[in-house]
Amino acid sequence: MFHRKSLLSLFGATLLTATLTAPARAYQLFFGEDINPNPGEGLLFGDIPNARAAEAAFLAALTNGAATEDFESFAIFTPAELDLVFGDIATATLSGGGPNSSVRSIDTALLDDPATPQAVKDDILREIFLGRNASSGAQYWLTNAVADFTVNFDQAVGGFGFYGYDLGDYGGTVALELFLKGEALSAIDIPFTQGANGSTDGSAFYFALLGTNNQRFDQIKFRMNGVQGDQFAFDDMTVAEAVPEPGALLALLGISALGSTFLKRRTSKAEVE
């Protein structure tokens, strides 16, 4: 099912640039949303074309490398702090999230395994019933809707995207606050549909931002404004490699030019001798 808001978002996905203040920063934004992809039908999570298209548009816009943390390497119920790995691009620490925030699973194969603890089986069934999901594999990060969490990178990156499930079904909101070396850059609201009393239970979206004009950041805070007791699911966090700053590029070009000049001089001297 295509939601009208999602279509508008996707048609503008590769063109939408938000100019933000405090101080002014510019980002290219990508968003696609699928309302109730699993309306009471258990594991029917796969039909989320708007979210998948937004992810594809984000990845297609990248000129440098990208890597994804899918939460599959963590044990179920692992709480923050989590050490996230984004290939060779960056590592990060996910902290915060509040009570009951941890890595969760919807792996139904564990339900038939006698070695699986009953608490894990009960939680898998609960998460499926409540409409939370993993966008790939079977695991994801589940967090409290009223507690912020932060992703701190070991170095500056140029873009960030992720899947979200079951957000806003009780009116909660989420904004991303971006920082670089402790300086607040921007705050960006995620425009998912607001529900009430579970009306958008199980909905899915993909949201990403890409810095323009070499804009980079090294910390993202997920600012939560939700309902006490509600929980949100996040998965497949993707980091885009930062474009080198102009000064760094010039320095590299200068070093390259010096090396080339030195090589030419040595070659000329050898020819004379």
Poorly predicted runs: 1-24, 247-272
In the CATH scheme, the class of the largest domain would be: Mainly Beta
User: Which series of helices and strands comes N to C?
Assistant: HEEHEEEEHEEEEEEEEH
User: What's the CATH topology name of the largest domain?
Assistant: Jelly Rolls
**Number of distinct helices:** 4
Distance between the termini: 77 Å
Q: What is the count of β-strands?
A: 14
What is the name of the CATH architecture of the largest domain? Sandwich
Domains counted in the coordinates: how many?
A: 2
Shape: globular
Radius of gyration: 22 Å
| Sheet/helix structural class | alpha+beta
Strand-residue fraction?
Answer: 35-45%
- Report the average pLDDT across residues: 81
Main sheet attributes: strand count, strand direction, barrel closure: 8 strands, antiparallel
Multimeric status of the protein: single chain
User: Helicity range of the residues?
Assistant: 10-25%
Give a written overview of the molecule.
This protein is α+β, with helices and mostly antiparallel strands and 273 residues long. It folds into two domains: 4-242, Jelly Rolls, CATH 2.60.120; 245-273. It has helices at 4-11, 49-61, 118-130, 246-272, and strands at 17-20, 25-34, 66-69, 82-86, 90-96, 102-105, 139-144, 149-157, 159-165, 173-180, 183-189, 204-211, 217-225, 231-240. The strands form two sheets. Strands 1, 2, 3, 6, 7, 9, 12 and 14 form an eight-stranded antiparallel sheet that branches. The protein has a six-stranded antiparallel sheet with strand order 4-5-8-13-10-11, with no helix packed on it. A hairpin with a 4-residue loop joins strand 1 (17-20) and strand 2. Helix 1 packs parallel to helix 2 (49-61). The longest helix is centred in the last third of the chain and has 27 residues, at 246-272.
